[in-house]
Design a protein that fits this description.
By secondary structure, this protein is an alpha+beta fold. The chain contains 13 helices and 13 strands. The strands form 4 sheets. It has a 6-stranded mixed sheet, covered by helices on one side. Strands 1-3-2 form a 3-stranded antiparallel sheet. β8 and β9 form a beta hairpin. α6 runs antiparallel to α9. The longest helix has 15 residues. The radius of gyration is 21 Å and the shape is globular. It starts with a helix and ends with a strand.
Length: 331
């Protein structure tokens, strides 16, 4: 093994989450039966799962390493749990600066169901055109459906699940944005995976393996390649941003200007500690100043300054007292 390969192996292990393999108190019977069955049929049709005869939920969950001795692990419950609390925020804006909201939906559920919700919302909000092929009328979305699914599923697959995350979909006149509270691997960019054929860095390896079987994601690191090829065929450009809050990706709609997309944003720049505090509060609205200081490895005085800045710039506000109240995320 070369030094570069060893370095990548160590980095991949550090990037990977151990959370998904931890066992829960949820029994295997607490799964969403429809989601699991739909996944099973999809994986079989993709020839990435052998058909179970007869169909057996417990056997399937065990085979996928999502349950043990009748109990689900975190990954299994996040993927298929009947009462899973993964969040999905679906928003349509009047412009690029997120000031005027035309439509807002806040959903919670399991990952497998929410991927479909994200895909369907985007497809319902973008333009379609009609193509005539071999005497048949075919409606085609302006962004390739496969590219949308790849990036939407990727957001769920690589999110940080240490606290139940919220994936965000934003529809603007000039772009479709997808963001998740999970940092991108180290110093890499999406272009590294496209041009250098770098193997995938798996934050949630177990969940990726399951979603790979139903072709929601490709675990070999080719997801960005596939998305880019599909977009090039359709003349769709895309952009991205990564910071300590998470990973932001956007499809640029035909006629949009990527520079204007950034210029239209009115949100003030956040410092690294402000970004970290904002991220922690978004995932847990009941964190107090001491808990935020512990998670951020900063003093409470530093945390107080970050909180004051976030309040002043309209990112959060306090509801109730400091002792018994909670945070409300405004942006």
């Amino acid at each position: 093994m070369s030094g570069e390969e060893l370095k990548r192996l160590i980095e991949n292990d550090e990037y990977s989450s151990k959370w998904e393999n931890e066992m829960t108190r949820h029994k295997s019977g607490e799964i969403d039966e429809d989601s699991l069955y739909d996944f099973c049929q999809s994986a079989i049709s993709c020839r990435r799962l052998e058909e179970l005869k007869p169909y057996d939920e417990e056997k399937l969950l065990t085979m996928l390493e999502l349950s043990q001795d009748g109990y689900l692990n975190n990954g299994g419950y996040a993927l298929f749990g009947k009462e899973a609390k993964v969040g999905l925020k679906l928003t349509t804006y009047a412009n690029s600066n997120k000031v005027t909201i035309l439509d807002l939906k806040l959903l919670t559920g399991n990952v497998y169901h929410l991927i479909d919700e994200a895909l369907n919302y985007i497809l319902s909000r973008i333009s379609w055109r009609v193509e005539i092929k071999e005497r048949k009328r075919e409606e085609v979305p302006e962004i390739p459906k496969e590219a949308i699914r790849e990036m939407a599923a990727n957001a769920f697959a690589h999110a940080d699940y240490e606290t139940w995350p919220e994936i965000e979909i934003g529809i603007h006149p000039s772009s479709v944005e997808i963001s998740n509270p999970g940092t991108f691997p180290f110093e890499l960019t999406p272009y590294d995976f496209i041009k250098r054929n770098i193997p995938s860095y798996k934050r949630n390896k177990l969940m990726l393996d399951v979603l790979f079987r139903s072709k929601d994601v490709e675990k070999s690191g080719t997801g960005f390649q596939r998305m880019d090829e599909l977009c090039q065929e359709r003349g769709i450009r895309w952009t991205y941003r990564k910071d300590t809050i998470g990973f932001f990706f956007a499809f640029l709609l035909p006629g949009s200007d990527p520079d204007a997309l950034e210029e239209d944003r009115t949100e003030p720049k956040l410092t690294a500690i402000e970004q970290a505090v904002y991220r922690f509060i978004k995932t847990n609205l009941h964190l107090n100043k001491a808990e935020l200081a512990k998670r951020s490895h900063k003093s409470e005085r530093t945390i107080q300054r970050a909180i004051a800045s976030l309040i002043e710039n309209g990112y959060i506000r306090r509801v109730g007292s400091n002792k018994t109240g909670y945070w409300e995320v405004i942006r």
